[in-house]
Amino acid sequence: MKIPAKLSNYIGGKFVAPHTKQYFDNPNPSTGKLLCKIPDSDKRDVAKAVAAAEKAFPAWSKLSPPKRFKILNDIAEGILTNLDALAKAESMDSGKPLWLSKSVDIPRAHQNFQFFATAQMQFSTGAHHMREEAINYTLRQPIGVVGCISPWNLPLYLFTWKIAPALAVGNCVVAKPSEITPCTAYLLGQICEKAGLPPGVLNIIQGNGQNAGQAIVEHPKVKAISFTGGTATGARIASLAAPKFKKLSLELGGKNPNIIFADCDFNKMVKTSVGSSFGNNGQICLCGSRIYIEEKIYDKFKRAFLKQVKTLKVGDPLNVKSNLGALSSAGHLEKILNHIEIAKEEGAKVLTGGKQIKLGGKFSKGSYMEPTVLEGLDINCRTNQEEIFGPVVTLTPFKTEAAALKMANGTNYGLSATIWTSDLNRAHRMAEKLEAGIVWVNCWLKRDLRTPFGGVKNSGVGREGGWEAMRFFTEAKNVCVAYGE
Ligand code: TXE
After folding, report:
1. pLDDT in tens, 9-28
2. Distance 376 CA to ligand 1 centre (A)
3. Which class in CATH covers the domain with range 9-252+459-479?
4. Whose CA is nearest to atom 7 of ligand 1?
């Protein structure tokens, strides 16, 4: 399994060129060199994909759960069989270390298919009995053709997180990966073909957001959209989908607080905080980019944290010794460096990092950056309010629990929050009051795929995961049968 020089779309079970016959470049961000060409698809390709999905829908939606399980589980197994090749493709495409693709991204893509293959065998609905009058029961029916649009930070991980539940409950899918990381989605098409997924059940369209992505959102036959990406793009998608009354699930950005109390398990907290700050180069919507530390341990934390951050090695993603690889694109590096300049203008003190890293040899055109820790900023400044989505965190002291809560809730985002404390009462009290869809206490990024996943405020609308995803991808119909008379 290899990345070809030119990727294709996967429509109706066939690997096909885009209607325009045009392609654009997909550079490897660790070297700046061309990795492959991406089809520049547009609404004509999307129309073909929707037609193929519509054709496949009657048979796929009626397939028995055990038969659907077999195919979806074979896709899961196919991902596992090709783990090494997929992990390498993911690292070359996104710049993330190979050890990370191998241990997190690709195993999770496998789990996504495995989880929803089995979940659809257990999915059930409710009944409401009106005593001596009638019985209501609820049908959960697949929607038809649905659209899944995913980002570049966790490419195959998030692509499959949407596709697997959509397929599991009987929909046919038109999906688009990010144009910045298109490779593993292309390879997934090959795995689906081998697993015997009927043609048209999953269609993968490559291309940019403006043409290919928007065409999926606007197509009248696509009845639901599941999107993960930036908040501005989410707003644009919502404005297009809402007047057409499409179902929408939006998982958007975050500016997550990491709240540290003096009574926490210090060593575990520091180690985890390095990961929650710089994991995947800070390019995870769940990273804790605002670190709030109880004043009495502020200096102790700063010393211990900086000591560990300074040991992080940034380099070739394929080298096992690299803790951090390249950023996802040259454009993203530029955006983050611009944020550093803004932070300095706002009065930030750079405790470590802040600069681009220029590696030599074949990596001289790669997009690398120092892990960056800032302090001394006002909580309302741009650096503490806007999602930077890179290896940049700010440190801010607090005196009381109430002050920490106010600062934590003081942004337009509300995806996740982390609390470090050994006071159980405080943990529960704060978890209840934090404006976030996900709260971690004394841990970070512990994920159980059955739990609801999503944000409040500008971090999104709706929830993914477990039954939530399966409910999103189905329509509920109540049937009321009177029998009283
Ligand atoms: O993502 P976009 P961008 C945040 C992060 C980042 C910022 C912008 O702060 O710096 O968003 O990233 C498709 N109709 N996150 O611009 O544009 C696009 O092709 C339909 C947080 O790279 O949101 C891609 O497949 N689709 C985040 C997907 O949307 C459109 C992860 C995401 O791209 C479209 C990524 C349109 N009009 C970035 N325009 C998270 N929540 O984890 C673009 N797309």
Report:
1. 999 999 999 999 999 999 99
2. 30
3. alpha beta
4. 230
